[in-house]
Amino acid sequence: MNTITTAFPNAVHDSQHCFRQLLTALSEPGKLITLDRCSGFSSMHSAATQTLLTLTDNTTPLWLSKSYASQSTLIENLRFHCGVSIEPSQEKASFAVIAEQDLAEFSWGDAAFYVGNEEYPDSSTTVIVELKALSLASEQTTSQVLRLTGPGIKTQVEIDSDLMPASLIAFLEQRQDQFAFPIGIDLLLVSGEALLAIPRTTKIEVTACTSQ
């Protein structure tokens, strides 16, 4: 039985489109973009799959959280379409994906993703985090938000954090104290086809919503 599924219908055109979208997200932290060129592999979110199709190859080892690390069909498709090797060590991975179903129990305090070094800070692990929902703060936001400031942000951006696990929120708020610039990890938050980037240069404050 063939377990390989369709990736980008037009590999060159679609990957270029997604690459431009990802550059926009990374240069404008907190800006929501849409990756809509193909569905996700297995149960992986579409935006996570398309990011891997666009940015990974046989030189970028990939770490998967436990739910995905046990899905043979997913791994077969990632290897076939991206050429990646699955890396069991967080520290040795160029990219990592934390599945939505694993996020609540994921221990950020024990995470060992590579944070780069002063000479090559961009060699750090890029961590893709799948969320149940992803949106900017609005009148429907009921409690706290993540307030983003820093390079690429004109004033500030507020992200709805109502459905984010407390452990993830704590990690995002404390990461500036854990890693001395320029080292650190870049995060890509995804939900379905939506994605926004939080590079290491972005400062985060947990605060009450002011968008109401």
CATH A-level architecture of the domain at 11-135 and 185-202? 3-Layer(aba) Sandwich
Largest sheet: 6 strands, mixed
Mean pLDDT: 93
Q: Report strand %.
A: 15-25%
- Cα-atom radius of gyration: 17 Å
**Overall strand count:** 9
Please identify the top-level CATH class of the domain at 11-135 and 185-202.
Answer: Alpha Beta
User: CATH homologous superfamily of the domain at 11-135 and 185-202, by name?
Assistant: Bacterial phosphonate metabolism protein PhnH
Strand order of the largest sheet: 1-8-7-4-3-2
Q: Helix proportion of residues, in percent? A: 25-40%
Helical region count?
6
CATH topology of the domain at 11-135 and 185-202: Rossmann fold
Can you tell me the overall shape?
globular
| End-to-end Cα distance | 53 Å
Coarse structural class: alpha/beta
Q: Which stretches are low in confidence, meaning pLDDT under 50 for 5 or more residues running? A: none
Order of helices and strands: HEHEHHEHEEEHEEE
Structure description:
With 212 residues, the protein is an alpha/beta fold. The protein has a domain at 11-135 and 185-202: 3-Layer(aba) Sandwich (Rossmann fold). It is 28% helix and 19% strand. The chain is built from six helices and nine strands. The model has no long low-confidence stretch (mean pLDDT 93). One of its GO terms (molecular function) is lyase activity.
